[in-house]
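[Automated response] Your request has been received and processed.

Submitted sequence:
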Amino acid sequence: MNFFENIGLAFNAIKTNMLRSIITLMIIAVGIGALVGILAALDAILLSLSSNFSSMGANSFNIERKGESLSGNRKGRRSKRGDVISFKQAMSFKERYDYPANVSISMEGTSMGTIKHKKEKSNPNVMVMGVDRDYLDVRGLKVEHGRNFTDAEMENGDHRAIIGMDIVKLLFDDRSEKAVGKTISNGNVKYKVIGVLESKGSSMTSNEDKVVLVPITNAVRYYDHPKKNYNVAVGVGDATRMNAAESAAIGVFRNVRRLKAGDQNDFEIFKSDGLMDILKENTVTIRLATIFIGLATLLGAAIGLMNIMLVSVTERTREIGICKAIGASRSNILLQFLMEAVVISLLGGLLGIVFGIFFGNGVSLLFRGAFFIPWGWIGLGILICFVVGVVSGFYPAYRASALDPIESLRYE
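Generated structure:
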């Protein structure tokens, strides 16, 4: 018998014992589905977070006061927080930093802005930010309609604003071209809209669509105070020069902060990929636990598969005797029963993989991620199913091949 004949016989045997085969198949499907689904879901979450964090620019980093980011926490003890980065320090860094890169200075004016236009107004949850001209480039933002701020507007602190798409939907009937040139207000302060940002959607970390950007010199006028912290971001055109840009930034910022040679840095360099590394490290335990649970489920499925194969050998003893009587060799019988176990296992695995893909992409949609197929986990699932089929089917197949043909023909 050739390979395809064995597969045909395997499917015939499955049809003969349909209910028993389906139950075993479903147990395997649950184990593989849980394994592939949860691992794919973790990948979906990490992909979504990676996309969200990269919104500040593919090749960029932030300079933050020490203790501001997640890396400020070490083994349950938070390191001493550094002093705020003042407007004077931020601007001084931008002037002194001569490395070929873009430097952006920004500050959070308020996260509870109520934006009005005529009779329309937003809820008091709009972020009003002061930014400079380089902010859009460093953050990877684009203007869909209108333009960026000019140098003159920055220098004079003019009442100009670039708004996000959610503001357009609320105040201008979702027509971005209609918003440009109109006047909006936050409290008693009025701004002329000069640009509308392309929609980027909300994420776990921010909502770039529900934001109003104003010249930072204007925001300083209304929101600055001694404890106000300013954000410094550096965008590097070439990713291979990131380390050099960071080293140069550390040296300049130490001078700006007037740190002595023996003093430790009271600021940190924060990159989105650095946070991603932390998240990946924290998901290692979850992945290992998922694999352990999936393998435990598959162990039960393997025992069940071996049991039905042993029962099948007993029920088909006379059939085995007939096959041997007409010339079937021990290897033919062994391969036939082994193939049957592998086919059942692979069918269960394929069903579980389909379930896992839908589960993983369901999580991806919740995080506004794109549809993806986890080929790596699919390959792992198929390999595990093949191994389960071989391990579970080998002993019953060996017993079937070892039966004496004469005794088998006498079996009732």
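Summary generated for your ticket: Confidence is low (pLDDT under 50) at residues 71-76. Residues 83-265 form one domain.
If you did not submit this request, please reply to this message.
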